[in-house]
Amino acid sequence: AWRKYSVSEFGNKEEFEKELVRHIETTLARSMYNCDEHAAYSGTALAFRDRLIIEWNKTQQRQTFTDQKRVYYLSLEFLMGRALDNAMLNVGMKDAARDGLHDLGFRVEDVVEQEHDAALGNGGLGRLAACFLDSMATLNYPAWGYGLRYRYGIFKQEIVNGYQMEVPDYWLDNNPWEFPRHEITVDIQFYGRVKNYQDETGKIAHSWEDGEIVQAVAYDVPIPGYGTKTTNNLRLWSSKASSGEFDFQKFNAGDYESAVADQQTAETISAVLYPNDNLERGKELRLKQQYFWCAASLFDIVRRFKKTRRAWNEFPDQVAIQLNDTHPTLAIVELQRILLDKEGLEWDEAWNIVTKTFGYTNHTVLPEALEKWSVPLMQNLLPRHLQIIYDINLLFLQSVEKRFPQDRELLSRVSIIEESHPKMVRMAYIAIIGSHKVNGVAELHSDLLKTTLFKDFVKIYGPDRFTNVTNGVTPRRWLHQANPLLSALIAEKLGGHEFLTDLTLLDKLEAFVDDKDFRDEWAHIKTMNKLRLAKFIKRTTGHAVDPNSLFDVQVKRIHEYKRQQLNIFGVIHRYLSIKAMSAEEKKKVVPRVSIFGGKAAPGYWMAKTIIHLINKVADVVNKDPDVGNLLKVIFIEDYNVSKAEIICPASDISEHISTAGTEGSGTSNMKFVMNGGLIIGTCDGANIEITREIGESNIFLFGNLAEDVEELRHRHFYGSFKLDPQLEKVFTAIKGNMFGDAADFSALTASIEEHGDYYLVSDDFNSYITTHGMVDEAFKNKEAWLAKSITSVARMGFFSTDRVINEYADSIWNVEPLVVKD
Ligand code: 26W
Question: Which residues carry this modification: N6-(pyridoxal phosphate)lysine (predicted)?
């Protein structure tokens, strides 16, 4: 039914072919006689791009014309993955393209694979932003994303002799999905000094003078909604040397070489995505990136608002800005600066506008991830902003002092400025003070924010400023696109694809849990998806894995808190057990494939050590004839969005095993369950809500609870530490050089045995192993396993980002969709 809403279509495959050939022969200046798969990809992309542009232009005109409130999603990361398949499915013309490509001798699946992932993000936070864009467009919200156009996305990972190597990801050549807007530029200032002067009314005003100017150039990426007329915009800023007076001076002074060097310096601002996930390093270039992007975006938003000629107090009725973590916190300070210094508003009036405009989403409680910038660094780079930060802090502390007199401890705890050497600016505190809502990303996480990290602010502002919006994923990419077979089966049972835009309709599947034919098809599809992954593994690693084995998957950034080390120790334990078995005992073993994937931050040695251990264990296990097919260990190189689309539908069980209280939400847990996989997990992040929705009997939970973590850590340090006996056997094997030189892994074992086991690997090991035993037993009962799989999918309706976006729209942004009537 939604087809009637879709964009001007290729009526049929012939029309698609005509467009394809036209683009290949003219736009690409290539001959059809030597059209390879890559040319077929480019031609198809251009044909679909044409369809997007038309609706994109109309959407922008419509949004300007109706002039209702817009959402601006500020994120330093957008982990988009590939665009073509998404465009085909959202525009709704994939069948015409498939048939047309077939006529020319291509398979659409192969053509789609030619596309380079747009990998402008590290992990969960960046992918969440991409899912949000999809849902905002699908739900017809007038919404823009703002980010940076990195020349290099997240590095490509190569595994060489079991070690991670990083290779730059230069991805921009021939990218058909971006539109340079050379006419849309903003001059961004750095360094310089603040001049105070008296304005006409005699009041002290401030102007920021001198310094350097770097130009921000807009690049726009169309974001099509699924089956709607809305195509929203993602605007990415690229840095360029300013062509202004400042540079001409240097050129004219004959200092050509250093003037060119300055140009290159300007261009490095948007050159590279910082590959740290959950670690703040305080690098000046990162602060430059943040300000560059915030200032360009704010200028753009304010420029758009000013065209409406409304009064400033209407700004928050027209504009909602959401901060994706603290990375864009300077936007708060920048808006206050614009309103004060450029527009001449009074402080209170300006600040009132600012706080009504912003919302802040926190994604992590890990202390090492909380952004702090040194005062001297900020003083040098952004002198006027530092002044404003001090003013915000002064007024805030005065108001706290009034309400809680004599509580000096409280004042120093909540001060934006940490009194360390050097002094540091706490960005999260600016984000809280400058926003009207602060949210966490799953219930436990949001509760922890209120009871630990931001406790004092709850006391000051009351509980209403703090809220929870549990994450989700877009079912278009993570069910329909990643798992076309399952999506088709569900559509057949439910009488159409409406579930893709109302995921709660999945609950109708429960009626078919006992339907024999349906169950068979369900099982068959899982096998097909496992085969697809097995082929991929064969092609990329050379290892043959048996699709009848239990596929056990952990794919995500490598981090001690996510505990891939717990998983690989568990694998070693399994390996040792199998080796100790008689032939008779081996017959009862459920064959397993343990699949790992994920990148370590380049400077995170412990994470790299974990990758090394996984690969060494794989080397030993995979060629051990005692084990054969009973256990295989696979490390999938360069895990990314497009690989996740193959991996998620193929898992029987996936691992979400972070130390309780450390994972904000997790979102791959949702992707796996939505594709009929079960979970082994801790009571952490959104695992808790997943359990509530699908039922405790459909998930394998283990381990200590968040409320006990503090006590256990304390005991490790002040009591005596006793290594779990089964883990001790694993360590003995490692130390006996079973997986190569034990010295390579001594830091890892020592972090547990000697340095307090901060992530409670030993405490949770027994429970983890026991629970894996239960997984094996459950997997033997194919029928009961299938019922769990189907029931879980049926109950996953809550985890669509459509629900998430509607919650943000209602409770934080106060925006309405802009629905078009025919
Ligand atoms: C400043 C360094 C830095 C870089 C990235 C700090 C923090 C980050 C991100 C917040 C890390 C991240 O991706 N967090 C993840 O966000 C997801 C979306 O909400 C959650 O599902 C994950 O639990 C959380 O780890």
Answer: 671
**Please, is 60 exposed, middle or buried when counting C-beta atoms within 10 Å of its C-beta (0-12, 13-18, 19+)?**
middle
Domain 549-793 - what CATH class? Answer: alpha beta
Q: Is 75 in the pocket of ligand 1 (CB under 6 A)?
A: no
Domains 67-82+117-470+807-813 and 549-793 fall in the same CATH topology: yes
Ligand 1 atom showing the smallest separation from residue 127 Cα: 18
Per-block average pLDDT, block size 10, for the chain (822 residues)? 46 88 94 93 96 94 95 98 96 92 95 98 98 98 98 98 97 95 98 94 92 97 96 98 68 79 89 92 95 98 97 98 98 98 97 98 96 98 98 98 96 98 98 98 98 98 98 98 98 98 98 98 98 98 97 98 98 98 98 98 98 98 97 98 98 98 98 98 98 98 98 93 97 98 98 97 98 98 98 98 98 95 66
CB 217 within 8 A of CB 240: yes
Kindly report the protein residue whose alpha carbon is nearest to atom 10 of ligand 1: 363
Instruction: Name the E strands within 563-658.
Output: 592-597, 631-636, 653-656
CA of 397 to the centre of ligand 1 (A): 29
Domain borders along the chain are: 1-66+85-116, 67-82+117-470+807-813, 549-793
Mention every residue, 6+ apart, whose C-beta is less than 8 A from residue 8: 51, 54
For residue 562, indicate whether it is catalytic: yes
- Which residue minimizes the CA distance to atom 21 of ligand 1? 666
Distance 645 CA to ligand 1 centre (A): 20
Enter the tokens of residue 784.
């009961």
Q: Which CATH architecture has domain 67-82+117-470+807-813?
A: 3-Layer(aba) Sandwich (3.40)
The answer to whether the CB of 471 is under 6 A from ligand 1 is yes
